[in-house]
Structures are given as structure tokens and as C-alpha cells.
Amino acid sequence: MTILQLQKVSKTFNGIYALRNINFTMNEGEIVGLVGPNGAGKTTLFNLISGQLKPSSGKILFEDKDITGLKPHTVCKLGISRTFQSSRPFPEMSTLQNVLAGQVFGKGFSLHTRPEDEQAARELLDVVGIAHKGETLAGDLTLSEQRRLDLARALATRPKLLLLDEVAAGFSPVLVKQAIKLINRVRERGVTLLIVDHFLNLSLKVADRLLAIDHGEKIAEGSPNTVMRNRDVLHAYLGLRHQDEKDY
Amino acid sequence: MSFFASKNTKFRTKGLKFDSVGLVTGLVLLIMLPALVQSNNYILQVFTHALLLASLALAWNILGVSGSISLGHAAFFGAGAYCSAVLSLEYGLSCWLTIPLAGLLATGLGLIMDLICLRLRGAYFALATLAFVEIPRVITDNWDELTHGSLGLVGVPGLPSLSLGTWSVDFSSSITASYYFVFAYSLVLLGLVRFLFNSNLGLAFQAIREEEIAAEAVGIPANRYRLLALLLSAYFTGVSGACYAHLVRYIEPGLVYGLHFSAIPMIFAICGGRFTILGPAMAALIIYPLDQFVFHPLLPAGHEFLYGVVLIVTVLFLPAGFWGSLRKVS
Question: I want to staple A73 with a disulfide (CB 3.0 to 4.6 A). Which of B122, B189, B221, B281 is the partner?
Fold first, then answer.
């Protein structure tokens, strides 16, 4: 079943296209990797879906409902959550409070935190592996812990679709392995995932499908194997080889 | 101490015990003050004013805690003072009615301020609010038929009296009575602020202040919460202004719309600890009497330099405010 649909979505900044005519569909339960070199428009696409930016033209449908131009907090309540390329924890709150904010505001509002909210938040901290840091101030966490916290907080809003922006950037191979495990655990919870992955160290291993963009345009879509053999994708990542240049 | 303590304070605030000790000590001292000073009028007058300033600082901090620094609260204070004074003096309404109405007028003004300023952030917001004060001030100054313009209003009715069955008290009858009136009001406001900050509204305010984009992303409508903070803050600043009018019984535009009433709550809130519940009130109750009893006699013309000095010292050495820093140490 289709969960997310982008119809001819474009975004311009001062007349310059950051994204041009992106058509793209995601099915429920899928993991899709969004790949592309620096400046391709990956984060812009995320910002459009999650409501931080409004598309210049085109439509975004979530569960057949038009969400184009809705505010981030409304989009969140509908069931789309995201993490950020550089984590944005609430630094002066404890780790637990960070997750509680997602738990309490993600779907509605309750004036006081109920015990079940706290329990759910602690469970999520456990899922991402920082349960022992519950009382630590989020600003004091390490980079990897902050990413985990970002993920836990996003999950706390009970999303159907989760957008992960560069979760594994700068991770050591060991941490990448842990991240893969973590993503599979998230998938088991029934969450559909769109993963931005610049270095491809995650998406090649977990994604069902890849969407490759370059200079704001879709250049390839399909299984990881076919996309990674695609000429345009190789060119975007590695540049043109001497022989290729002659072919062009 | 279960004074309005909410169930979830334990992960919201460290140093809760410390807060309770400070609160109990402060309350006991304040309740006993008239007896301690044997109803010395001057001392009581100073502390009545200090309590009123404490209420202003508490009200200012409702907005402050959501991350906005306002330099325009004199707008709400002055509008509240004038509203209650005019309604009770010219139209003879009871102060029990005019004081809440003053709060409502200030809230309306807060709504206008929201339209003009609240899309701004940081220093831009602060500067816009500073200019905003001119709007109600100029209106008050020029609406002669209603406000007597810059002549001010003299003979504003005193604080109201309260009678329950056979027991009755006239809050304007003595300084001690006025003192307890302002004390009760500040205490109610403190309770409300405490309830607010310990509830999930407080969590939303803090989230918006610390990382607005992330707050929006987890479902917090930042602009709506910021507006709520501003309206609550404006309401109680207006009520404090009304209390001031009935307490001092003389108001004029230059006084109640003066920079004094914009800057003082901010200075107290920052010195006491902007993100604490008790800090702003504590600062008012310590710094203002210090100013009046020690610095005013020494330097009658320039005693207000004290506020500048404590503000600079706090910002440089105790960015969390003295109460905020003390709590951390404990």
C-alpha cells in the first residue's frame, strides 16, 4: 500500500532549482535509501516532506492525504517524524525528558506526564541503547548517543513514516553495524523508513530500494544493485572517466 | 513540601529539595515580617513594593522561560494600571472587577504585540517590544478625556476590602493589610507559575527555547505556545499594574509606562535565574530592599546603578542566575 507519494515536487531558492520535478512513491513497510552526492537536494527533500520547507510546486500525499505545505507539528501529528543531519537535542533537558517531549506532544497533548508515557520513553531509550543515560543532560551526550537520542525522540512521536537524515555519518564500522541492527529493530515496529545516506554505508545494507538524485533531479530508482550500477549514479559519485567523456 | 508540586517534577527539576527549603524559609520570613519589624511603615512599604516587583518578575518570566526576552512589559503594566484606575475612579466599579479587567486589557495588548513582534527572535524581538511600549503610552498620553493625559490620575481608590461573613478586612486601611494583599497575590502567581513550569506546558516552553526546529518536529506548535506564554505573562503584568495603581493611588504615563517597569522584571528574572521558578521572585525580594535600605540613603541620586551592576555581574559570572547557580551547586 502506498504511504507516501511525491508528485512533480520542485523547490527553488531565489530562482535556482534545489529540486526539480521529483516523482516518487513509497510503500508501507519499505526501507528506501535516498542517495546522492553533496548538494544533490537530499536534505531539501526531507525538509519538504516534514514541513520545514514548502514546495514551490507539486504535491506531497501521505496516506492519500494532501500534506503539501502543512506545518512540521501538524505533519508530525499525522505520522511523519524525522531526525536531523546534525542532531538537535534539547541540550538542557535530561535524555529522558527529550524523549518525553516526543511522547507527550507527538500525537496530542496531556498536561501532565502519565506513568505510561514515562515507561514508553524509557523503553525507547532502551531500544536505542542509551537507557543508562536517562538522567544525563542531552547536551553532555557523545555524538553517537545524541544520534540515538534523536532517533528515540522521533520514535516517541509514534510515526508511521520515519525520515532518517545521515544517521550513520561519521560512524566507525562498529557503530554502523549497530545502526543497521537498530534500523532493523525499528522496521520490526512497523515503521516505514526513508534514509538519507551520503556515504552509502547504511542504505546498501538495509534498503529495499534506492532513490538516487543529483543536482535536484531524480537520476535512478530501483534495487540497490541496479541503482549502484547505473551510469548516471556512478558519474554523480565518481565523476566521468576519460573514455566516458568521449562517449558523451 | 507539597506546595503545588506535580507528580512529574522529579525528572523536570533537580534541586527540588533546595527549592522547597528556599520557599519555606522565604514564606515564613515574609509572613512574619510585619511582626518582626513591629509594623514599621517604611520597611513594610518597601517590602510591599518588593513583592509587587516580585510578581512582575514572575509574570515576565513566563514569557522569558519560552526563550523571548521582552523589554516592553511596561506596556502591559501601564495599560493595566490605567484600566483599573480609570474604571474604578471615573466609573466607580469595584476593584475586584477592575483588577481582572485590567489583566484582560493587557492580554488584548499582548495579542497585538504577538501580531507585531512574535515572529521575531532574540535581539530583534527585544528591540521591537521596546518600541511597542510607545503605542499604549502615546494613546494614554493623548486621550485626555479618559486619562487626563500627562497630568496623571490622582486619588485612585485604594486596594479593595474583603468580607466573608462577619470577618472583613480593608486592604487599604493599613500598610500591613496592603502588604498581605500583595503577598497573597504574589503567592497565587507563584503557585500558578510553579504549576505551569512543572506541567508539560513548561516542557514545551523549554523545548521551544532550546531548539525550536526540533520542537516543531516532535509536534510542538511553537508559535502557539509562545503566544500562550506571552498572553499569560501580559495578563499578570496587567494585574500587577492594577495593584500598583491602587497601592500607590497616583499614576501618570511617564511613570507606569517608563523603562523602569520594563527593565526591572527582566533584571530580577535574569539575576535570580531565568529558568527557575523561585529565582525571579527571590531576586526582587533581595535586590529591591538592598537598593532602598542601603544604596538609596548612600547615593540618593544614583542609587539605581545597583541594578546595572548586579545585571552585569550576573551575566558575566552567574549566567544561570544566583538561584539557578545555587541549585546547581547543591
Answer: B221
